[in-house]
Amino acid sequence: MLVKVLHNANCSKSNAVLEYLDENGVPFEIINIIEDPLSVTELKTVLKKLNQSVFHIIRKNERLYVEKFAGKNYSEEEWLQILSENPSLIQRPILIKGSVAMLGRPVENVKYFIEK
């Protein structure tokens, strides 16, 4: 089954997962979330597949988060809009296989996800 990878080319962990998939012959499709940001609706679909709230995928150590969003009390809907407009704040990579998804960190967890 084809694995979709929500990817940021500037992220070493994201690149490591792509390398792992390639080395293991796993067919995958790259979705560059920086060049082609996800809509609010697409984010909701991903979160449903992750079985997580939006708060689970926010990169709280990202400089943009610290400078602009830390300590603010945004609703889930507001965060969806913020992440759609600021995709660098989304944890990555996120792997999607059919109706399920996972954060691709650590890369060791990817093996289990692929074989499942």
From TrEMBL:
Which keywords accompany this UniProt record?
Answer: Oxidoreductase
Q: Which residues cross the membrane?
A: none
* Superkingdom of this protein's organism: Bacteria
Looking up SUPFAM superfamilies in the UniProt record yields: Thioredoxin-like
Q: Does the keyword Lipoprotein apply?
A: no
EC numbers = 1.20.4.1
Q: Which GO terms describe its molecular function?
A: arsenate reductase (glutaredoxin) activity
Q: Does the keyword GTP-binding apply?
A: no
Show the InterPro entries listed in the entry: Arsenate_reductase-like, Thioredoxin-like_sf
Which PANTHER family does the record cross-reference, listed alphabetically? ARSENATE REDUCTASE
Q: Which family does it belong to?
A: Belongs to the ArsC family.
Q: What is this protein called?
A: Arsenate reductase
